[in-house]
Specification:
By secondary structure, this protein is an alpha/beta fold. Helices cover 56% and strands 12% of the residues. Strands 10-11-12-7-13-14 form a 6-stranded mixed sheet, with helices on both faces. A 4-stranded antiparallel sheet has the order 6-5-8-9, covered by helices on one side. The chain binds adenosine-5'-diphosphate (ADP) and magnesium ion.
């Protein structure tokens, strides 16, 4: 009871502070030289930017085409109000928002087929098409170059009286209400499971998909959310000005949004609001007070270059850095804690033994049945045959080793098994199901997971957040729409993360960010990410690579401790480790299976000696 009370408080305090700040703005900002209309416009761009920050700051999707949705929402709402004499402004705004979302979904389906600069280019092109449509073919509806004038003010019938939201502070209150709701919702989204997945996509989309999240769908979801915020803000622009301008659709509008968000601080939600305030204040100040006329853009450009050079994380990022600088003493203490030598895994085990029953899903197959069967599996990269006709099967509960010289095709084989890449021919059966043509996300959801030869972590997040992302995929499935529910409320999440932290001996380092970890710790987290998805079959691609002898010994112990209740396949170069760890070994050479047998058979084989061991292993 107590706890939920404090949780409630913690949840609502920022909302309360925001409401208070919005109430205080009319008292403070005008004294600093902000014009009334400027403050209102800042709110509109602040709201527009919340969605964009979710898209770019949180998910890493840089769109230069947000004007398409801003304009769509704006013109749909304005058209309903001006031409169809819609009675309710709020309803018109909501319909505009829905229209922008639908357009966003269609545009997203196209743009999200590509990533990076190509994605950005598609968004620009889409926005340009919309600008053209608004100006020419649809000018009968949109007023073309003239835009739509005469957007009516909102009216509220309160029974005994009618309140008309005229310009000035009444309009401010109207806009601030929408901004407040928009911010409260966005803060919920950010702390929800969906918010965690978005950040994971930004940091490492490949791994987010590999631990079992449907990355494509989440990207589309956030694209639609951003379009909805844009559409609402566009509608509010028309209502605020009593006029819907055609330049809502221009590239300038999209560009201004990007710059304002970056200036204010990415991934903060408030960044665009701050950035818009800086931009619009400077515009007024340079044009008006300093009387620079058209040269204001030159001055603005210089100021922005300086801002971006000296405040690389934006105004809010800079403030955050300043605050953490002041708190340095506390910080140093935690750093000291962080760099303290970690107890050897053995010691950790002694303090907190791993859970008695490891969390894996039931196989549905007995120990005697193979959990995995690959038949005639091949992979060609152009002329290179990386894998050729591999027949391979593993029993449930086995700990299988795979060895072979560099370039033998081991990693490629694993990538095919987990459907990270498609096979050129052959088939893969996992737990009696044909998975050959599935994708990596589905296969992970079915219970097969891999740790990578080269670490694939979520580098800007903490150890705990990394494991949370993997555990969420297991607990929620590949896609879920629980955007307004805190991730902490997902049943079993905290336990599963704690358990994985113990299994890979990273409890002490749970709050450390990945960049602070030692190499061996990163390798253990790499294994932890795969483990947190509770696989029944775990593939480990060179888990010992690059480790010191003592780290190797510790990791071998770790692997032995996690095998209970799981099926493991381990690739490694370290012969002694593999001989010590596994009961059965498959030798790959030049993309083919050379031999399969127990450690003694492998050690004694002259073919293996020739192909692989000769000179390497005494
Ligand atoms: P191993 O893990 O055993 O060292 P790999 O599976 O990484 O071997 O590579 C096997 C062969 O396939 C190598 O010759 C490698 O150059 C080639 N190969 C792997 N991935 C690709 C790729 N994406 N494109 C082209 N060739 C590749
Ligand atoms: Mg490899």
């Amino acid at each position: 009871m107590m706890k939920s009370g404090t949780d409630l408080l913690r949840n609502w305090i920022p909302d309360f502070l925001l409401a208070l700040a919005l109430v205080l703005v009319p008292l403070i900002l005008p004294r600093l030289g902000f014009a009334q209309d400027t403050i209102n416009l800042v709110l509109v761009f602040g709201l527009f930017g919340i969605g964009f920050d979710l898209l770019f700051g949180y998910t890493g999707l840089l769109s230069f085409g947000q004007a398409a949705f801003f304009g769509t929402g704006g013109f749909v709402a304005a058209y309903l109000l001006v031409n169809l004499h819609f009675p309710s402004v709020v309803l018109a705004l909501l319909i505009g928002t829905v229209a922008a979302s639908i357009v966003g979904a269609l545009a997203g389906l196209v743009a999200l087929k590509r990533t990076g600069i190509y994605f950005a280019m598609i968004t620009v092109s889409i926005a340009e098409m919309f600008f053209f449509l608004e100006n020419s073919p649809l000018s009968a509806f949109t007023g073309g170059e003239n835009g739509l004038a005469g957007v009516p003010a909102p009216k509220f019938y309160l029974g005994f009286t009618t309140v008309t939201v005229g310009p000035g502070w009444k309009m401010y209150a109207f806009l601030a209400t929408f901004f407040f709701i928009g911010m409260v919702l966005a803060r919920r989204i950010v702390t929800s499971s969906v918010g965690h997945v978005l950040v994971a996509i930004r940091d490492n989309a490949l791994r987010a998909a590999a631990v079992g999240h449907n990355v494509k769908r989440y990207k589309l979801l956030v694209f639609v959310i951003a379009a909805a915020y844009a559409g609402l803000a566009g509608g509010l622009l028309g209502v605020m000005q009593g006029y819907m301008p055609p330049d809502a659709f221009t590239f300038d509008t999209s560009g201004q949004l990007v710059i304002q968000t970056v200036i204010g601080g990415l991934g903060t939600l408030f960044g665009p609001l701050v950035g818009a305030a800086v931009w619009l204040f400077l515009r007024d100040f340079l044009q008006g007070s300093l009387g620079l006329g058209a040269a204001w853009r030159l001055a603005l450009g210089i100021i922005f270059v300086l801002l971006v050079c000296f405040l690389r994380r934006g105004v809010l990022g800079g403030l955050k850095d300043l605050v953490s600088h002041w708190r340095k003493p506390a910080h140093l203490a935690s750093d000291a804690h962080a760099t303290r030598a970690e107890p050897a895994p053995d010691a950790a085990v002694a303090v907190e033994p791993p859970a008695a029953a490891p969390r894996t899903r039931p196989n549905g197959t007995g120990r005697t049945e193979p959990i995995l069967v690959a038949s005639k599996l091949s992979k060609r990269f152009g002329g290179i045959v990386a894998n050729a006709d591999i027949d391979f099967s593993v029993e449930a509960g086995e700990l299988r080793g795979i060895i072979g010289p560099n370039g033998a095709g081991k990693s490629t084989f694993f990538k095919m098994l987990t459907c990270e890449i498609s096979s050129s021919s052959g088939s893969i059966m996992f737990q009696g199901q044909d998975v050959t043509r599935l994708d990596v996300t589905t296969v992970c959801q079915l219970g097969m997971s891999k740790s990578y030869q080269v670490n694939q972590l979520f580098n800007r997040l903490s150890v705990r957040e990394n494991l949370t992302i993997a555990a969420l995929a297991r607990l929620r499935g590949a896609f879920r729409f629980d955007m307004l529910r805190s991730a902490l409320k997902v049943p079993g999440l905290v336990e599963q993360v704690e358990e994985t932290l113990s299994l890979v001996h990273l409890r002490e380092r749970a709050e450390a960010s990945v960049s602070e970890l030692a190499y061996g710790e990163k390798r253990r987290l790499e294994i932890g990410l795969a483990l947190a998805t509770e696989p029944s079959l775990l593939l480990l691609d060179e888990p010992l690579a690059g480790m010191s002898p003592s780290e190797r010994a510790d990791t071998v112990k770790l692997l032995k401790s996690i095998r209970k209740g799981r099926t493991l396949i381990v690739i490694d170069h370290d012969m002694d480790a593999i001989f010590d760890l596994t009961e059965r070994i498959t030798v790959l050479s030049e993309g083919r299976i050379l031999l399969e047998g127990n450690p003694d058979e492998i050690k004694g084989s002259s073919i293996v000696q020739e192909a692989y061991l000769g000179g390497v292993h005494e």
